[in-house]
Amino acid sequence: MKIAVLPGDGIGPEIVAQAVKVLDVLRAEGAKIETETAPIGGAGYDAAGDPLPDATLKLAREADAVLLGAVGGPQYDALDRPLRPERGLLRIRKELNLFANLRPALLYPELASASSLKPDVVSGLDLMIVRELTGDVYFGQPRGIEVRSNPAGGSERVGFNTMLYAESEVRRVAHVAFGIAMKRGKKLCSVDKANVLECSELWKEVMIEVSKDYPEVELSHMYVDNAAMQLIRAPKQFDTMVTGNIFGDILSDAASMLSGSIGMLPSASLDENNKGMFEPIHGSAPDIAGKDMANPLATILSVAMMYRYTFADLSTADRIENAVKTVISQGLRTSDIWTDGTQKVSCSEMGDAVVKVL
Ligand code: NAD
């Protein structure tokens, strides 16, 4: 398996180094893993004047999976938009056709006090949101701002976007979501706004059609406004959720905060063949970069997702996740999740602890 390793900027290199230590353990045990590192984001701009250098994109295309740290930093904020680090990230997702974004929201019971919700509401939370990533109102045409005549007379500027999904786009993300639900609790909630939007009406019809291929999965539907409320009221009612790009953008950010720390949450973005890019959901944290303080667990858990979804090696995925659970239960904490009575460790010490358990 060839893995393209793209550390990026800020804390990216520090956290990715810990995840690479995990890969090194697996390699030492005989796993055939090859890694190659390349710059992306600000590092890509510094190296080649482009946040997604051609050589990096070529490596990512040829690899079986991509492991990414994070991109961005204040020193790049004044660059023209196409040269900014975040553009490199958007482009690689689009170029690799990574249409299914998987974001787990999982709360380790020991970290329940870190959540802004009551511990009994979130303790033991284990939810997966599947968000369609390359369609919807973010990409639909036409879009723009133009001057139109006003029915009351005169004219004024209007802004418009098009919410658009082709059946095939809904179908492919539906298959990913049902496949994931099959491996989890066999309950899938499709979130839409079919009471108002034709685009959602089609989304719902296709979900029902695809559900016939997965008779073991219990499919339910929820309007997005209710889903937002239910996620905060009683998040443990959900097992797997699937939704479009804009609804998923908002719901997955809300869900990620249920679990307290941004430093704990991994993500995967998959294409049609389950090739994927795996990255923590947080950014490059310039405020703590270079201080060996960042929490590397989201990145290490991203490696577990790589094993689960791209390499289909569930036992290695479980092993990595269990190693993370063990270090948490041993009381080891980076500063973002530290509380009285637990042991504060650095980024590299946390990586070493996971390696030791493995
Ligand atoms: P951020 O996620 O980088 O940081 C938000 C806060 O969380 C900071 O206080 C930071 O110290 C903390 N934090 C983040 N990750 C942590 C970790 N692993 N361990 C401990 N603490 C952690 O978000 P931001 O500050 O809004 O953005 C900083 C830069 O990152 C910006 O340039 C932004 O564009 C970029 N960004 C990149 C991505 C990505 O690469 N996927 C995502 C979001 C933001």
From TrEMBL:
Keywords: Amino-acid biosynthesis, Branched-chain amino acid biosynthesis, Cytoplasm, Leucine biosynthesis, Magnesium, Manganese, Metal-binding, NAD, Oxidoreductase
Chief localization: cytoplasm
Residues that hold NAD(+) according to the record: 73-86, 283-295
Superkingdom as given in the UniProt entry: Bacteria
Pfam name, any one: Iso_dh
Pathway: Amino-acid biosynthesis; L-leucine biosynthesis; L-leucine from 3-methyl-2-oxobutanoate: step 3/4
PANTHER family given in the database record: 3-ISOPROPYLMALATE DEHYDROGENASE
Protein name: 3-isopropylmalate dehydrogenase
The organism of origin for this protein: Sulfuriferula multivorans
Chain's gene name: leuB
